[in-house]
Backbone:
C-alpha cells in the first residue's frame, strides 16, 4: 500500500490536494527531462532554425533531414575532436580507476589511520570549483614545463582529467566495499590462498560492478570537461566539449544539436549500464534489489 | 598470577598482535599512498601554488631594484628627492633594454590606473636624459610629481603583498597607508560575491522546492515504478553539461521553443517575446535543472528510511494528514534536506560554464570574473586572490558538510 494513493474516505480538499501534488511532480519531471528531449527532434530539422517549423509540426517528411549529422560527419574539426575526446577520456579513466580502486581498498580497511582526513582530501577535486582547479593546474604546468612538457600536451590534459575523475571512483568503490563481507577474504586466506589470489578471485569479482561504475563516471567527467581544456590545451587538443563551447559562444549552428543528440544517446547507454551493474552488485552482495 | 600468553613460536601474544596490527596499518596506508601522492602533486600543490600567486609580488623588486632600494628609507610624506629619480631613470632604462618595462607598467597600472603610459612614455625619454632627473621627469609627466605614484611603487616593492586581496574586496591603501574603499565606479567584486551568494541561494531553494515533492513520490511509490521515474532524475545527471546548457538556450531564447509556444497559444504577441535567457534568471533556471539531481538523490535516500508507519501512527492518534506530514514526516527528512542543500549550494557558488554561456550581463558569477582575469586582463594575482576567497568559502562549507553529513555518505546515482 503506497502512501501516494488516496484513501476511500478522502474529502474534496484531500482529493484536490492529491491531484495538485501529482501535477506538481509531473511538472518537475517535465522540467528535468524536457530540455533534453526537445533537442532530439530539433536536430533533424531541415532548416537551420532552433525551433519547430510549421512543416515539422504537421510531420511533413521534407521538414526533416539528416543534414546536420552529415555536417558533423564531414567536418574534419568534429572528427578530430571526437577522436581526441575518446583518447583523453580513455587514458584519464584508466589512471583514475586504478589509483582510485587501490585507494578505496585502503580507505575501507578498519586499520587505516586518519581515514576521514584522507577521504576528505581525495574527494576534494569534486568539491573545489573547477575554475580554481584549472587556474592552479595552469600555474603548476607553467612551472614544470621546462622539465616535463604539460601545457598544450595530451599528457597534461590526461593528468588533469584523471584528477577530476578519481573522486567518483573512490566514492563508488568505497560504497561497494561498505557492504563487503570481510569474512570472505579471511575464509579464502584460511583455505590457503595468498593475498594476490584472494584479491583477484574474491575481492575483485565482488567489487567489479562498483569499479566499472566509477570508471564510467570518470569517463563521463573527462568526456564532458571543458574548463581545464580551455586553460591548458593547445589548438591540437580540440575536444568535443571545447568545440561545442566555441560553437555556443559564437553562434549555435544546428550541427551542435546533432552532436548533442549523439551525446544524449551515449548518456542513455552509460546510465543503463550503470543501473544494470548496480543491481548486479546488490544481488551479489545479498542486498535486496532497490 | 596468570602466565604470559605466547604465540606458537614463543613470542608474547601482545607484542605479536601489535606487530600484526602495525603491518596491517602500513598495508592500508600503502594502498592509499599512490592516489594521495598523485592528488598531492597534480591537485593540492597546484592550488597551493595559486594561493601563493595571490600574495607574491616579485616583479617590482626584481626589475626596479635601485628605486626599491632608495625608497626603503623614504618616509612617504612627500615626493622623494633627486636620488630616487636617478634610481628610477637607471631602472627604467635597464628595464627597457631587457624588454621588461611593459610588465612593470602593467603591474603598476593594475594598482593605479593611468600609470601604464607614464612608465612606458618616460622610460623611452629617460635614455637621453642627463642628471639632474627630477625636473625632467616631472616636466614630462606630471604624475611623477604626485605623491600617489611614489606611494604605489613603494607599496608594490615588497615581494609579499596583500594588495590583491584588498582589490578583491574593493579596498586599497590610500596615500597615508590606510585601507579605504575604492571609488564607487570601480567597486565590483563585493557586489559580485553578493550576487554569487544570492543566485546560489535562489538555486538551492528552487531545488529544494522542486526536489522535495518528487523525492517524496519516489520514496513512497512501489520500487518498480519508482525505479522507472528515477531514470528521469538520473538521465539529466548523466547528460553532458554543455548539452543541457545548449538545450536551455534552444528552449528559452526569444526565437526559441517556449516563446513560440506562448505566441502560438496566444499568451503573448509576436512582438512581445520575453527575454528568458542570457540574464540572471536564465542562469538560475538552467542551474536549477542541472543541480536538481544532487538534491533529489540525498533526499530520496533519507526518505526511503522513514517508516510509513510513523505517518499512520500520527494519523491514528488523531492528527490530520497534513499536520502529521508537517510535524512527523518533515522533521525526519531534515538530514536529507541539509545534505541536499549544502551540496547544491557548494556546487552552485563555483559554477562557471552555465553562467558563462547563458548569463549575459547580469548573470555572471565570481568564477567568470576569475576566468576573465586569468585569460583576458592577465591580472593573475587578482584572479588568484578572488579564487582564494571563493576557495575559503567552499572549504568552510565542505567542512560543515563533512561534520553534518559525512563525505562517505556522498552517493552517485
Residues:
Amino acid at each position: 500500500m503506497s502512501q501516494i494513493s488516496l484513501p476511500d474516505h478522502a474529502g474534496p480538499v484531500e482529493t484536490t490536494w492529491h491531484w495538485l501534488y501529482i501535477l506538481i511532480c509531473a511538472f518537475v519531471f517535465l522540467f528535468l527531462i524536457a530540455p533534453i528531449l526537445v533537442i532530439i527532434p530539433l536536430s533533424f530539422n531541415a532548416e537551420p532554425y532552433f525551433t519547430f517549423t510549421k512543416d515539422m509540426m504537421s510531420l511533413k517528411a521534407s521538414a526533416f533531414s539528416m543534414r546536420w549529422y552529415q555536417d558533423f560527419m564531414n567536418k574534419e574539426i568534429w572528427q578530430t575532436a571526437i577522436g581526441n575526446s575518446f583518447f583523453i577520456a580513455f587514458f584519464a579513466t584508466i589512471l583514475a580507476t586504478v589509483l582510485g580502486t587501490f585507494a578505496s581498498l585502503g580507505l575501507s580497511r578498519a586499520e587505516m589511520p586518519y581515514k576521514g582526513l584522507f577521504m576528505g582530501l581525495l574527494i576534494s577535486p569534486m568539491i573545489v570549483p573547477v575554475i580554481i582547479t584549472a587556474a592552479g593546474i595552469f600555474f603548476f604546468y607553467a612551472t614544470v614545463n621546462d622539465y616535463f612538457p604539460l601545457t598544450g600536451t595530451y599528457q597534461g590534459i590526461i593528468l588533469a582529467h584523471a584528477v577530476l575523475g578519481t573522486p567518483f571512483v573512490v566514492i563508488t568503490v568505497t560504497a561497494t566495499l561498505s557492504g563487503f563481507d570481510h569474512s570472505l577474504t579471511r575464509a579464502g586466506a584460511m583455505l590457503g590462498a595468498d593475498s594476490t589470489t584472494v584479491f583477484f578471485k574474491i575481492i575483485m569479482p565482488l567489487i567489479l560492478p562498483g569499479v566499472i561504475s566509477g570508471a564510467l563516471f570518470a569517463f563521463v567527467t573527462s568526456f564532458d570537461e571543458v574548463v581545464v581544456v580551455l586553460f591548458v590545451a593547445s589548438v591540437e587538443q580540440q575536444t568535443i566539449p571545447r568545440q561545442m563551447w566555441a560553437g555556443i559562444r559564437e553562434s549555435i549552428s544546428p550541427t551542435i544539436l546533432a552532436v548533442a543528440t549523439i551525446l544524449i544517446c551515449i548518456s542513455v547507454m552509460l546510465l543503463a549500464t550503470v543501473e544494470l551493474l548496480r543491481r548486479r552488485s546488490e544481488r551479489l552482495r545479498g542486498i535486496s534489489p532497490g | 598470577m596468570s602466565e604470559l600468553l605466547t604465540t606458537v613460536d614463543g613470542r608474547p601474544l601482545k607484542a605479536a598482535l601489535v606487530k600484526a596490527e602495525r603491518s596491517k596499518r602500513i598495508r592500508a596506508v600503502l594502498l592509499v599512498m599512490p592516489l594521495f601522492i598523485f592528488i598531492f602533486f597534480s591537485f593540492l600543490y597546484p592550488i597551493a601554488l595559486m594561493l601563493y600567486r595571490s600574495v607574491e609580488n616579485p616583479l617590482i623588486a626584481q626589475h626596479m631594484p635601485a628605486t626599491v632600494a632608495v625608497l626603503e628609507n623614504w618616509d612617504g610624506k612627500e615626493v622623494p628627492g633627486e636620488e630616487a629619480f636617478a634610481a628610477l631613470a637607471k631602472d627604467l632604462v635597464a628595464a627597457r633594454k631587457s624588454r621588461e618595462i611593459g610588465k612593470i607598467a602593467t603591474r603598476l597600472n593594475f594598482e593605479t590606473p593611468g600609470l601604464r603610459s607614464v612608465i612606458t612614455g618616460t622610460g623611452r625619454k629617460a635614455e637621453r636624459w642627463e642628471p639632474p632627473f627630477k625636473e625632467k621627469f616631472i616636466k614630462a609627466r606630471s604624475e611623477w610629481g604626485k605623491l600617489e605614484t611614489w606611494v604605489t611603487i613603494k607599496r608594490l616593492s615588497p615581494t609579499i603583498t596583500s594588495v590583491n586581496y584588498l582589490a578583491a574586496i574593493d579596498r586599497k591603501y590610500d596615500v597615508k597607508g590606510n585601507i579605504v574603499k575604492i571609488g564607487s565606479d570601480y567597486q565590483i567584486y563585493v557586489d559580485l560575491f553578493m550576487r554569487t551568494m544570492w543566485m546560489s541561494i535562489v538555486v538551492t531553494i528552487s531545488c529544494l522546492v522542486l526536489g522535495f515533492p518528487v523525492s517524496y513520490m519516489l520514496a513512497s511509490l512501489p520500487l518498480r515504478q519508482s525505479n522507472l521515474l528515477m531514470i528521469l532524475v538520473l538521465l539529466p545527471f548523466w547528460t553532458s553539461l554543455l548539452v543541457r546548457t545548449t538545450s536551455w538556450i534552444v528552449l528559452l531564447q526569444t526565437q526559441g521553443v517556449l516563446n513560440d509556444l506562448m505566441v502560438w497559444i496566444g499568451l503573448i504577441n509576436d512582438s512581445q517575446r520575453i527575454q528568458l535567457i542570457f540574464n540572471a534568471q536564465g542562469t538560475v533556471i538552467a542551474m536549477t535543472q542541472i543541480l536538481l539531481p544532487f538534491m533529489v538523490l540525498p533526499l530520496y535516500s533519507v526518505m526511503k528510511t522513514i517508516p510509513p508507519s510513523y505517518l499512520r501512527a500520527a494519523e491514528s492518534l488523531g492528527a490530520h494528514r497534513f499536520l502529521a506530514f508537517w510535524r512527523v514526516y518533515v522533521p525526519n527528512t531534515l538530514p536529507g534536506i541539509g545534505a541536499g542543500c549544502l551540496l547544491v549550494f557548494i556546487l552552485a557558488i563555483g559554477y562557471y560554464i552555465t553562467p558563462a554561456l547563458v548569463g549575459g550581463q547580469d548573470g555572471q558569477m565570481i568564477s567568470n570574473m576569475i576566468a576573465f582575469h586569468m585569460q583576458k586582463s592577465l591580472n593573475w594575482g587578482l584572479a588568484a586572490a578572488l579564487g582564494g576567497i571563493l576557495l575559503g568559502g567552499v572549504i568552510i562549507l565542505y567542512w560543515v558538510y563533512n561534520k553534518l553529513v559525512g563525505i562517505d555518505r556522498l552517493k552517485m546515482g
